[in-house]
Structure formats: structure tokens, C-alpha cells
Amino acid sequence: MAKIKPGKNASKRDVITQKAAALFKTKGFSSASMRELAEAVGVEAPSLYNHIGSKGELLQGICFKVANAFISYLDRAENTPAGHATRLEQIIRFHIRMMLDHFDEVYVANHEWKHLKEPYLSNFLIQRKGYEKRLIALLENGIAAKEFKPTNPYVAVLTILSAVRGLEFWQQHKKNISSQVLEDDMVNHLLKGITK
Amino acid sequence: MAKIKPGKNASKRDVITQKAAALFKTKGFSSASMRELAEAVGVEAPSLYNHIGSKGELLQGICFKVANAFISYLDRAENTPAGHATRLEQIIRFHIRMMLDHFDEVYVANHEWKHLKEPYLSNFLIQRKGYEKRLIALLENGIAAKEFKPTNPYVAVLTILSAVRGLEFWQQHKKNISSQVLEDDMVNHLLKGITK
DNA sequence: TGCAAAAACTAATAAGCATTAGTTTTGTAA
DNA sequence: TTACAAAACTAATGCTTATTAGTTTTTGCA
């Protein structure tokens, strides 16, 4: 008589979640099957249900863990005594490091959130929107303080977030360039441009 | 006795492809069913096969049409007499307009290519890689000509392509900002930065 | 008006999917 | 060693999928 799920063995559940992130990343949530996930974990598919509730629950766990990480950092950054430009730079650097250090999960949160079921889908989008708005406010304040050029803050935030997100294509070149050069060059590009 | 597929009625086939692009964009290739596509077209699912070969063929059509558009423009841009900075600016503007004017198809090509079947998958990736390499060469030449700062060309190309790609999130704000402001501000940001 | 082809339809096939039920094995603590 | 629970297993359920076969309707031209 199994089928009780204690809070004890967070370990195995975490292994499954990590493997799920890798699988969802390479095959996409819908194309990834529980059979494949089970094989990656080294178990038969039904055995997974001794540790998790459902396939969708795995996606929820991944998406909201990532969302919380970004929001938490922004909370801290907003209460830091620093100029707007400095704060923006710190945030950009955090995004870059998240992309490099937690690639699978961030990728899945960025790409597969649309397969979240309600009410998680709405919740996720609200959180995203809120995050975006706070960044736009930072840009607006920076423009008002004449630390940034008088550009459209929506466009600037979009440009920055998108550029950083694009690090998902970085995998291949990891060998050739150190992540420090990458981080510094991208920050400089986004803040100061590339033309002389 | 139907089931012959002439080259005549390109029209209906194109309608199906366009609806498929919209559907693949919102639901993802794997989650989008032929039943749903048929409903969008106003027909029963099996009837689609009088006009197309398979679901995968639709994806191929979309992905390679987009790839060809970008490659064709780059061919032309490379043979234009202009400085490297000017050429880069033109290319960025073309990317932005493609995102805005052919949103569904570009989105699908950007997100769902991984569901292409071999040999199309390899082919697509080779084309992408080749395109990227030519852009990197443009950056390298611009840096050598001292038109660009001495930055890592890989990082610069990644930043630019990713930023432009991020216009997929633009849909919502379309009303508030003209696409001309968007295009100009983003080009300025990517070329000259935002800090004063 | 009549004929042939194009394109729609219904019905069926075969495969894959997430998940549940019920049973057996494994690991641990008394 | 015994007992109990955690976690594995096999088998089965019910649903959805893309696609094919075979048939009927629609369309356009002579």
C-alpha cells in the first residue's frame, strides 16, 4: 500500500525535477513524455508518481522557482543605495549569471510557461508583467535623473531583457570565451553601445 | 478518386500554412492538433491532406521560408556600397520589420524549428550557423575599420540578434508606441547604448 | 447539360500519451 | 529476525493523435 507522499524525501523529487528541466528544454514540454523522463531518472514511468503529482506540476515547480529567484533579486536591488545605472547594471549581471548557472530551468521558464494550466498560467504572467513594470520604472527614474538617454523605457527594457535571454544560444561557444568576458561585453554593449 | 496534388491551387495551401503558423505560435507545434488547424481553416481534419503532405511539412515550409528571407536580404546587404555601421543598421532594421510584419512565421521559425525532422533539422541549423557567421564577419570587419568598439564580435552579434528576436513580446504594447519609434529607439540602443 | 477532376466528408487504424490500480521488492528500525 | 512503509514493478484504462481508405459532394469547363 504505497502512494503516500511525505515531505521527507525532497531529494528524489528534486532529481526528477532537474531531469525534467533538461528534458523539457531539449524536447519541449508537450513532446517530452513521462516515459522518457522515467528513463532519464532510471525508473519505470509509473514509479515517478510516487514522488510527484503530475507532469504539469513539474512544469509549475520549475517556472515559479525561476520567477521567484528574479523577483527576490529585484526586491533586494531596489533597496540598495546606488545610482540607477549601477542598479540596472547589477540586474543585468544577475540575469546573465542566472542564464549561465541555471540554464535548463531558466530556459524552460522562458519557453514552456505557455503550457502551464490555470490558475498558474495567469499567475505566472501577472508576476512577469509586474517584474517588467518595475524595470520600466527604474528606466524612467534613470532617464529623469539624466543617467540614461531620453529613450522609450519600454523599448529599452525589452531590448535588455531580450538580449540577456538570448544567452540560451550561448551553449556552443562556451569553450571559446570566458563567461566573464561575455558578461562584461554584453553589459557594456547594452549600456554604452558598440559604435565609437 | 481524389488524392492527386497539382501545383495549381497554391492558394488554399497557403491559407492552411498561414493558419498553421498562427496555431503553432500560440500552442506550440506539438500541442497544436490537425483537428484544431482544420477547424481554423473551416474543414474536417482529413480534408487538409488534399492540400498538404503532413503536419511536419507545414513546419518545414514555414521555417525555410523565413530562413530564405533573411539570407536573401543579407546577400543583398553584403553587396551594397556602404560602411559597416550603416550595413549593420540596415540589417537590424530588416530584422525588426520582419518581426513586426511576419510575426507568426518568424515566431514559429524561431521557436519550433527543433521539431523539424531530419534532414531538415540539420539543414536549418546549418543555414542559421552560416548566417550568424556572416554577421560576425561584418562585426569583425567593422572593428578592424575602427567603426565599432573593440568588443567580442560573437557577443555583439548574439546581443543584437537576441534583442531583435525579443520583439515577439511586443504585441501587447503595439498600441502605445509607433513601430517607427520602436525601430529607431532599438537601433540606437543597440548601436550607441543608453547611458549618457 | 453532362462529365471529370478537385476537394469535401465519414469511418477506421494504429500508435502514443498520462495516469491509476494492484502487487511485489527493497530498505530500515525495533 | 520481524514488521512496516517507501518505492519499485506490471498491467490496464481511457483518451488523443496523425494519417489512410473509401465515398460523396462540389466545382468548372466543353
What would you say this structure looks like, in words?
The structure is a homodimer of 196-residue chains. Chain A has 196 residues and is mostly helical. Chain A has two domains: 1-53, Arc Repressor Mutant, subunit A (Orthogonal Bundle), CATH 1.10.10; 55-192, Tetracycline Repressor, domain 2, CATH 1.10.357.10. Chain A has helices spanning 10-27, 34-41, 55-78, 84-101, 103-111, 120-144, 153-165, 179-192. The longest helix of chain A is centred in the last third of the chain and has 25 residues, at 120-144. Chain A is elongated, with a radius of gyration of 19 Å. Chain A binds a DNA duplex (30 and 30 nucleotides) through residues 1-4, 6, 8-9, 12, 33-35, 43-47, 49-51, 54-55.
Please supply descriptive tags for the structure shown above.
DNA-binding, Arc Repressor Mutant, subunit A, mainly alpha, Tetracycline Repressor, domain 2, elongated, homodimer, about 200 residues, about 0% strand, disordered N terminus, about 65% helix
Give the termini separation of chain A.
Answer: 71 Å
The CATH superfamily of the largest domain in chain A is identified as Tetracycline Repressor, domain 2
| Number of distinct helices of chain A | 8
Q: Multimeric state of these chains?
A: homodimer
Class computed from helices, strands and strand pairing of chain A: mainly alpha
Give the largest interface pair and sizes.
A-B, 47 and 47 residues
Order of helices and strands of chain A: HHHHHHHH
- Counted up, domains of chain A total 2
Task: Please name the CATH topology of the largest domain in chain A.
Answer: Tetracycline Repressor, domain 2
